[in-house]
Design a protein that fits this description.
CATH topology of the largest domain: Glucose Permease (Domain IIA)
Order of helices and strands: EEEEEEEEEEHHEEEEEEEEEEEEE
Helix content: under 10%
CATH class of the largest domain: Mainly Beta
Number of domains: 2
Number of helices: 2
C-alpha cells in the first residue's frame, strides 16, 4: 500500500511570538472509508485545537509524551472523490491563535452492491421497537472519546475465515436498498475464538440483543472503537482491559444472521471506516 505523507506549516493569524504548529497528515490522498492521521507539533502546549472536516469539527484530545497532538480523522465511505478541505484551528495558552485550510484529494473507490433475501420475521427485526435499546447502547459505546491512545501499531484480524461481505458494500434487502455495510463479515465455524484487534477497554458486552446478537465494543482511545457482532459467547466484561490478540468471545449466528460469522467493524469518532485499513498502518 502506497502512503502519501503531507507536511504543512500553519501560519498564525493572530500574535507573532510563537511559531505556528507543524502539521503532518498521513495519507494526504485517502480513499473513502479510510482515515487521515493528523498530528500537530506546536512549540508549546496548546490551550485547544480542532479540525473542521466534511461538515464536522474534531477536537485534538491528547498531548502525547513527545509533545504532539494526534487525531484520527475519518473519511466517510460516502465521501465523493475530488478535492476536499480540512481546516485546522489552534490556540496557545498565551492567547495566540491561528488556522489554516489544507486541500485533501480523495481518490475514487467503488464498493459494489450485495442483494440479500431475508424471511419476513428477520426483516421485521430491522425496524422492531425492541431494537431501539440495543442501538442506543451500541451508539453510546461508539461515541466514547477516551483521551489516551490505548492502541499501538496495526490492528490484528480478530478471526481467520472467508470474507463473506466486504466493507462499504450497498446492501439491498428483499429488493430494496437498506444500508451501506459498515464492517466486514468473516465466515467461520461456530465457536471459533474471536480475538481483540488491538489493546483497549471493553465499552460494551451484551448478550441480549435481538438484531445484533451477542455484542462487544472495545474502546481503543482517541475516538477509535471496534465492534464484534453475532457472537455465540462473550468472554469479557464491561470495563475490563484487554490486550491485542486476547480471546474476547466466540463466533456465532445470534441476532439477524444467515450463518455463523463475525461482523467486525472499526469506527473513528462514530464514523465507520474500513477495518482492513487498520491492518497495515503507515506508522507504529
Amino acid at each position: 500500500m502506497r502512503i502519501w505523507i503531507g507536511v504543512f506549516v500553519l501560519l498564525a493569524v493572530q500574535g507573532a511570538g510563537l511559531a505556528a504548529p507543524r502539521v503532518t497528515m498521513v495519507p494526504d490522498a485517502p480513499r473513502p472509508g479510510e482515515v487521515i492521521f493528523v498530528t500537530l507539533e506546536p512549540e508549546q502546549d496548546l490551550l485547544r485545537a480542532a479540525c473542521s472536516w466534511n461538515g464536522r469539527s474534531y477536537r485534538f484530545q491528547f498531548r502525547g509524551e513527545d509533545g504532539r497532538y494526534p487525531l484520527a480523522l475519518p473519511v466517510s465511505a460516502s465521501t465523493k472523490p475530488g478535492e476536499h478541505r480540512a481546516t485546522v484551528y489552534w490556540k496557545y495558552a498565551n492567547g495566540e491563535m491561528g488556522k489554516e485550510t489544507i486541500a485533501v484529494q480523495v481518490r475514487p473507490r467503488d464498493f459494489g452492491v450485495q442483494r440479500l433475501r431475508l424471511s419476513s420475521s428477520q426483516a421485521k427485526k430491522y425496524s422492531s421497537p425492541d431494537t431501539k435499546r440495543e442501538k442506543k447502547l451500541i451508539w453510546a459505546a461508539l461515541d466514547r472519546v477516551t483521551p489516551e491512545r490505548l492502541w499501538r501499531g496495526s490492528f490484528a484480524m480478530p478471526v481467520e475465515g472467508r470474507i463473506s461481505t466486504p466493507f462499504g458494500i450497498e446492501r439491498h434487502v428483499n429488493g430494496k436498498f437498506s444500508y451501506r455495510h459498515r464492517g466486514v463479515d468473516i465466515a467461520a465455524p461456530e465457536g471459533t475464538p474471536v480475538r481483540a484487534a488491538a489493546d483497549g477497554i471493553v465499552a460494551l458486552a451484551d448478550d441480549s440483543f435481538l438484531l445484533h446478537g451477542q455484542t462487544i465494543v472495545l474502546d481503543h482511545g482517541q475516538g477509535v472503537e471496534s465492534l464484534y457482532l453475532h457472537l455465540s459467547r462473550i468472554e469479557v466484561s464491561a470495563g475490563e482491559r484487554v490486550a491485542r490478540g486476547q480471546v474476547i468471545g466466540r463466533v456465532g449466528q445470534t441476532g439477524v444472521a444467515t450463518g455463523p460469522h463475525l461482523h467486525f467493524a472499526v469506527y473513528a469518532y462514530h464514523e465507520a471506516v474500513d477495518p482492513f485499513f487498520w491492518m497495515d498502518l503507515p506508522f507504529h
